[in-house]
Amino acid sequence: MSEFSYAPGLYLDIHPADDPSAPVVIYVHGGGWSHGDKGTDGPTRLVPLAAYGVTVVSVDYTLAPQAVYPQQVHELKGAVRWLRANGSSLGLNVDRLGIWGASAGAYLGSLVALSSGDSALEGTVGGNVDQSSAVQAVVHWFGQVDLAASAARTELEARLLPFHFEADFVGDDGSLDGLSLLSRASASAPPFLIAHGDRDRIVPMTESLALHYALTRAGARSRFELLGSAGHEDPEFNSPATLATTAAWLRAALD
Questions:
Q1: CATH number where 153 lies
Q2: Total tally of structural domains belonging to the chain
Q3: Which one, of 3, 71, 61, lies nearest residue 37 by Cα?
Q4: pLDDT tens digits for 143-185?
């Protein structure tokens, strides 16, 4: 594993596959946009996936409330551009890149994928503005899809999962309006692999299903996998079967 700075104060880890021609996927960690870092899932998720033939680049982004939307998206797009500019010199196959996120990271990664060319979300973090921030495949694991809908909790749900996660993400002056991935689904979207547990009590599986249906109705490619008896961030997502399936899909999508 090697660490590099892709912008001032922002770092990424590269977990290489054995084959230097292996496809590359950028990993965006979860944690409600306010917790976690690029090393959180290294031993249990990222290193094992690299062993299945996909190089994993785990990226840090500034956490809320220190950063508010869209800074996190600007930073992740900066990481994509940095990889395109520097990957070849590091021996990485960066002609086609995937992005993979879990929970809050899945929302961010999917937003990166569905906003190519959106001037409001591109930003200039890290420079390399001559490089594209587009990605060619997306793995979305149990992530939020429509922040306004997910924030509309019952009183009991709000006690279990306070609204402050979304509030911190957009800031005191921000709005959740327009932060739905569904409105960005189009035929030009890259292919998606969406996975969710049927016992998720944090993000309902209906959110992932809604994204899957929105993509397919728009004419994009999407595959939906429902993991039986799995909850949010369930160990089943790190099982050899799930990681092998995910790696195989990424290798095919990024071929």
A1: 3.40.50.1820
A2: 1
A3: 61
A4: 999 887 766 666 776 666 655 667 778 776 666 667 899 999 9
Give the strand pairing for 2-7 and 10-15.
antiparallel
Task: List all residues 6 or more positions away from 219 whose beta carbon is below 8 Å from its beta carbon.
Answer: 186, 187
pTM metric for this prediction: 0.94
Q: Nearest Cα to 165, choosing from 192, 196, 143? A: 143
* Residue type, position 37, single letter: D
Single-letter residue type at 181: L
Which residues constitute the domain of residue 215? Answer: 2-253
CB atoms within 10 A of CB 88: 12
Measured CA to CA, the distance from residue 77 to residue 232 in angstroms comes to 26
Respond yes or no on whether the N-terminal peptide bond of residue 20 is cis (omega within 30° of 0): no
Q: Is the peptide bond before 70 cis (omega within 30 degrees of 0)?
A: yes
